[in-house]
UniProtKB/TrEMBL annotation:
Descriptive protein name: Uncharacterized protein
InterPro entries assigned to the protein according to its UniProt record, in alphabetical order: TIC32 (IPR055280)
Length: 58
C-alpha cells in the first residue's frame, strides 16, 4: 500500500514486530481506536475492559 489505511497498518505491524524482537517474545496487542468517532471509542473501551488488563498508556 502506498497511502491511507494500508500504509498505517503496515507501519504499525512493523513497529509491533520490532518491539517483540527487542523484548524477546513480549506479547503486544494492537487495537483499533478512532478518537474522532464515539462509536469507535465505545467499542474500544468495551473490548479493552473485557481483557481485564491494566492500561499502561495515556
Amino acid at each position: 500500500a502506498s497511502s491511507g489505511i494500508g500504509v498505517e497498518t503496515a507501519r504499525i505491524l512493523d513497529v509491533k514486530e520490532a518491539i517483540v524482537k527487542e523484548n524477546h517474545g513480549a506479547k503486544l496487542d494492537v487495537m483499533e481506536l478512532d478518537l474522532s468517532s464515539m462509536v469507535s471509542v465505545r467499542k474500544f473501551a468495551t473490548e479493552f475492559n473485557s481483557l481485564d488488563l491494566p492500561i499502561n498508556i495515556l
